[in-house]
């Protein structure tokens, strides 16, 4: 029997909700469900009629770049009543719906749980009242699946909720903008972010924006908290940075539980420091705009997983939220999600801050610690030993490299280790060209694009290695932190192999993965990848806007070297119909099939089709070749255009995700270096983020994960998303073409 599914968005809107609805609708149609969209959340479900409409494949076309939710959202008092929910059940039963997907916050998920629990009793009552008429078979139960949609990131059971990443990007960019005006006027700004019970946005925004102080609801403030804040600002000003940012979550509170008001903060700072202070409340700007690449991909993965869970559940009742934990799909009972999410607020109310933080998760606690460390640190007077630690950024530049350098260098200086920057990567190391790193300069590097140290692609020769050893000896370099891509990994591997005969090379080294290509071993994400992805997706959105009266195919070439990460993830986030990846190559048979699919796509109503091609997907089937082939076969039915995005992809300020990743990795690199120097260890270590955790692995071991000949890791987690990208972007399957 054909199953019917309904989907709604509820509570506050969040960017990415449209991507989730699209994924749910198309996956469900593919799995044979009849699909209904419920407009205006539970309010629409209670109202019925026009508020519940069938959704087809094309109804969710072109909505990926749109902010908010096209289904509309609402808070419904009627749904909170038994009578209201009975109406809701009546409408669902009448349409034969036995599965409901709800995208929203904890309140919305609670509503879904209550509805599923009460379903049999409502059905019985409606039957008794004769309100179900001659319906035939009534679904005996309702399966409900929740998806986390809330910009606050306050939901238990998922590391990230839909909308959070976009909101964070708004926040860091707002802090960037305010910083430039603050610097011009030597002002201090108090910036308020959303988050009534949750300090996630404030904390991550403060870290990514390079703020000097943060106030979050989950932290217990002692009675003298303003003195501490004033001291930190005073110290930062004394070091030479006259403009400061203080970030406060709207739910931050005094030790007695009363809210901390921004105007109050302004008065404290102005009175105590005699400085010019301005307040900016970011407000609803944080919710708005086109969703980030991350949010679109997260929402798509969760939406597909929701339908898959419904299909796989069989007769088992489903009352779960689908979340992402450690970069893997994870199901948690709705009731557990609601109870544990709400418990944080209760713990804060009761003053149990430690418990509140524990419920927020390890990553929140570690980031809070990292931020506190950054506010405490200052260049230490006592120097540990006399030789410096050298930091370089190698290969091609990647957004976020400066953030990593800034954090690593300041953490080391705080411990009294002298630090120097190497100019132009290994090139500078060969020639002994260094750059003094100034504390204040470093502070302002957090949000700078590209690499201030400079990067050069250069593979070390035997002769170079000898000269690097001489530089290290001459300048008494005690350790090396190398931030870069595959070339940097290969160069450090070369140095490591020469350590036995060239004693000067035997110093501790730490590698930090930074490349837009995401082609490194030992890590699921590399610094720079997220910014590049957002750059690509924004460009693809613009290309889509050019859709006019003429049917058009765009073949867009993206970077990635031998890794299809950027092409595939950009396809997933932009709804591109095809991604040619180096992992799969391109065959003539495939191109032949693509020609047929393309024609069918236009016949089925598409006006614009996007094909993405990784720069190395094939040696001979180039972007130009594919475009000409498609044009030739179009017989005038559609036009073909190409776009090579080139270096636009690696430009611009780093995204929030990249800044946070770079901050964590920069601090971890400093910590590893400091430990090795103190314990006189001379290991070569590589950092990575796997399943959400930072990992440290000997370089030798990490390189075993690498397929050096192919230029990418042997296993790439993202490839499993490739079928998803294609099936969601295809033309309506119901459309039959002659
Ligand atoms: P946000 O995080 O943006 O606040 P939310 O989903 O938590 O999103 P709420 O206003 O708490 O937003 O809930 C949305 C809707 O869910 C409510 O208007 C109400 O219709 C329904 N709802 C919430 N709690 C319950 C409940 N206990 N029983 C039935 N329905 C509920």
TrEMBL record:
Q: Which domain of life is it from?
A: Bacteria
Q: Does the keyword Kinase apply?
A: yes
Pathway(s) the chain acts in: Carbohydrate degradation; glycolysis; D-glyceraldehyde 3-phosphate and glycerone phosphate from D-glucose: step 3/4
List the molecular function annotations (GO) for this entry.
6-phosphofructokinase activity; AMP binding; ATP binding; fructose-6-phosphate binding; identical protein binding; metal ion binding; monosaccharide binding
The EC code for this enzyme is 2.7.1.11
Keyword field = Allosteric enzyme, ATP-binding, Cytoplasm, Glycolysis, Kinase, Magnesium, Metal-binding, Nucleotide-binding, Transferase
Main enzyme class: transferase
Question: Catalytic activity, per the record?
Answer: beta-D-fructose 6-phosphate + ATP = beta-D-fructose 1,6-bisphosphate + ADP + H(+)
What are the names of the required cofactors? Answer: Mg(2+)
Report one GO cellular component. Answer: 6-phosphofructokinase complex
Output the InterPro entries linked to this UniProt entry: 6-Pfructokinase_euk (IPR009161), ATP_PFK (IPR022953), Phosphofructokinase_CS (IPR015912), Phosphofructokinase_dom (IPR000023), PKF_sf (IPR035966)
* Cross-referenced Gene3D superfamilies: 3.40.50.450, Phosphofructokinase domain (3.40.50.460)
Q: Which Pfam families match?
A: PFK
Please verify whether the record's keywords include Magnesium: yes
Phosphofructokinase domain mapped to chain residues: 5-310, 389-671
Q: Which GO terms describe its biological process?
A: canonical glycolysis; fructose 1,6-bisphosphate metabolic process; fructose 6-phosphate metabolic process
Q: Where in the cell is it found?
A: Cytoplasm
Q: Which family does it belong to?
A: Belongs to the phosphofructokinase type A (PFKA) family.
Cited PANTHER family: ATP-DEPENDENT 6-PHOSPHOFRUCTOKINASE (PTHR13697:SF4), PHOSPHOFRUCTOKINASE (PTHR13697)
Question: What is the protein's name according to its record?
Answer: 6-phosphofructokinase
- The source organism is Desulfosoma caldarium
């Amino acid at each position: 029997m054909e199953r019917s599914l309904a989907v709604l968005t509820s509570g506050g809107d969040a960017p990415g909700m449209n991507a989730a609805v699209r994924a749910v609708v198309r996956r469900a149609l593919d799995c044979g469900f009849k699909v209904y969209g419920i407009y205006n959340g539970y309010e629409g479900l209670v109202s019925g009629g026009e508020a519940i409409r069938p959704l087809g494949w094309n109804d969710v076309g072109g909505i990926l770049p749109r902010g908010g939710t096209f289904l509309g959202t609402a808070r419904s008092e009627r749904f909170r009543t038994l009578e209201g929910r009975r109406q809701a059940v009546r409408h669902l039963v009448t349409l034969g719906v036995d599965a409901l997907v709800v995208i929203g916050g904890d309140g919305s998920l609670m509503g879904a749980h209550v509805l599923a629990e009460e379903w049999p009793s409502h059905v019985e009552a409606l039957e008794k009242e004769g309100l179900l008429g001659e319906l035939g078979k009534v679904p005996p139960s309702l399966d409900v699946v929740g998806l986390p949609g809330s910009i606050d990131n306050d939901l238990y059971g998922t590391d990230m909720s839909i909308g959070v990443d976009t909101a964070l990007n708004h926040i860091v960019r707002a802090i960037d903008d305010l910083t430039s005006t603050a610097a011009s006027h030597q002002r201090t700004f108090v910036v308020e972010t959303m988050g009534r019970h949750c300090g996630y946005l404030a904390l991550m925004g403060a870290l990514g924006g390079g703020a000097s102080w943060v106030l979050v609801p989950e932290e217990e403030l002692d009675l003298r908290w303003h003195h501490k804040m004033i001291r930190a600002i005073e110290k930062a000003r004394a070091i030479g940075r006259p403009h400061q940012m203080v970030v406060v979550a709207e739910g931050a509170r005094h030790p007695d539980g009363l809210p901390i008001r921004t105007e109050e903060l302004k008065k404290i700072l102005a009175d105590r420091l005699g400085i010019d202070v301005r307040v900016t409340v970011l407000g609803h700007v944080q919710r708005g705009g086109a969703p980030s690449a991350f949010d679109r991909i997260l929402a798509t993965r969760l939406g597909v997983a929701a339908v898959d869970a419904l299909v796989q559940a069989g007769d088992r009742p489903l009352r779960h939220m689908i979340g992402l934990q450690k970069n893997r799909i994870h199901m948690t009972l709705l009731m557990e999600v609601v109870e544990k999410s709400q418990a944080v607020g209760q713990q804060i109310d009761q003053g149990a801050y430690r418990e509140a933080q524990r419920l927020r998760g390890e990553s929140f606690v570690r980031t809070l610690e990292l931020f506190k460390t950054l506010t405490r640190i200052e260049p230490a007077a006592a120097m540990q030993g006399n030789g410096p630690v050298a930091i370089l950024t190698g290969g091609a530049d990647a957004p976020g490299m400066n953030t990593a350098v800034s954090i690593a260098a300041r953490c080391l200086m705080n411990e009294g280790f002298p630090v120097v920057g190497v100019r132009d990567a290994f090139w500078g190391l060969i020639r002994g060209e260094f750059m003094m790193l100034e504390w204040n300069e470093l502070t302002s590097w957090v949000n700078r694009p590209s690499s201030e140290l400079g990067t050069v692609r250069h593979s070390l020769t035997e002769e170079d290695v000898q000269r690097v050893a001489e530089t290290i000896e001459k300048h008494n370099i005690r350790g090396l932190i190398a931030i870069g891509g595959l070339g940097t990994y290969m160069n450090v591997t070369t140095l490591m192999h020469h350590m036995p005969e060239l004693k000067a090379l035997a110093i501790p080294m730490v590698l930090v993965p930074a490349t837009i290509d995401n082609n490194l071993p030992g890590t699921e994400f590399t610094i720079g990848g997220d910014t590049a992805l957002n750059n690509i997706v924004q460009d693809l959105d613009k290309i889509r806007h050019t859709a006019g009266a003429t049917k058009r195919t765009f073949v867009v070439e993206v970077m990635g070297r031998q890794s299809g990460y950027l092409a595939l993830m950009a396809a997933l986030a932009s709804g591109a119909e095809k991604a040619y990846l180096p992992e799969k190559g391109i065959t003539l048979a495939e191109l032949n099939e693509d020609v047929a699919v393309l024609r069918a796509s236009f016949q089925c109503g598409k006006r614009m089709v996007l094909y993405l091609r990784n720069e190395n997907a094939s040696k001979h089937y180039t972007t130009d070749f594919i475009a000409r082939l498609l044009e030739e076969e179009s017989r005038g039915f559609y036009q073909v255009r190409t776009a090579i995005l080139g270096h636009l992809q690696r430009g611009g300020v780093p995204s929030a995700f990249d800044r946070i990743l770079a901050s964590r990795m920069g601090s971890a690199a400093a910590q590893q270096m400091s430990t090795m120097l103190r314990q006189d260890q001379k290991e070569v270590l590589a950092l990575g983020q796997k399943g959400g955790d930072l990992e440290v692995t000997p370089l030798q071991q990490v390189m075993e994960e690498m397929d050096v000949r192919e230029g990418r890791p042997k296993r790439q987690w993202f490839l499993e998303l490739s079928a998803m990208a294609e099936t969601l972007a295809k033309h309506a399957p119901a459309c039959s073409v002659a």
